[in-house]
Amino acid sequence: MKNLIAILSIILVIVACSGVQKTSEQSNSNAKVENDTIKIANDSLDYELIIFEPGFNSWLVTQRPRGYYSQNFLEQKNQNFVVIYNSRVTGSPYASTGLYPQHIDYQYNIDYGYEVNYLLYHYFIYFQEHYKQNLR
User: Fold this and answer.
1) Region for residue 46 given its phi and psi (left: phi exceeds 0; alpha: psi -120 to 50; beta: otherwise)
2) N or C end of the chain, less CB within 10 A?
């Protein structure tokens, strides 16, 4: 139960899009950081990325800055991480651990922009380090 509660608070990543959009629309996004909750929402793209993770925000500031990685690099890494993560949501023996509570709807043909890809990539790195998981 403790793991389930921790995991549910770890990640609530919801990425749902209705169509391909341009990166320039990212300027309309609202980024909001409250304690250890990071939320990025963009009404024009109909997506929302929420990361609930105690310690993630303070860990994130110790990582490479925005702009260090290209968006293409982040997208490729996220695609690989999402495939492995989603396979563990339903796959044994990982499904019973509670570490993979929810499917991540990350569509490869959607341009989510730099900020979403940056935060999602770093969440996966944090997740691997903090919970000693290997998503490679």
Assistant:
1) left
2) N
